[in-house]
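Q: C-alpha cells for this one, please.
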Amino acid sequence: MEQPIRILIVEDNVIIADDMQSMLEEIGYEIVDNVIVYEQAEEVLKTQQVDLVLIDIILASDKTGIDLGKHIRENYDIPFIFVTSNSDRATVENAKTVKPNGYLVKPFTTSVLWSSISAKDSFKEFKIM
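A: Here is the predicted structure, written as C-alpha cells:
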C-alpha cells in the first residue's frame, strides 16, 4: 500500500485551517501539522517528513507565506502551493518570485483543493525542475 501524501498546512485562520485539514483527511491525505506562523512551519520542516506545504500568504507574524515559500525553495526539495484570499496583481506577481507549485484562491471546494494537489499523474514527480 502506498504511503499517503504528508501535508503541512500553514494558515493563520484556525477555522479555515481546520476546514482544509478535514477536507484533506477526507480524501486520504495525512496532515503532518497545522500551524499559524512562519516559525512554527520552519520547525516542522526541520523535524518532520513533509511531502507538500499549503501556505497562506498572510500569516500571524512578521514573516509572510511568501517568506516561507522562499525558505522552502532555498532549503528543501518540497513542493508548496499558496492558498490565499489575495488574488490582486501585486500579490500574485510577488508570489511568483518564489516559484510556487500552485496558487489556490479561497474559498474553494474539496474537489478544487484535490485537483490542485493532484495536478500531475504522480505527486512524487510534482517538483520544480
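A few notes: The beta strands are 6-10, 30-35, 52-55, 80-84, 102-105. The first strand starts at residue 6 and ends at 10.
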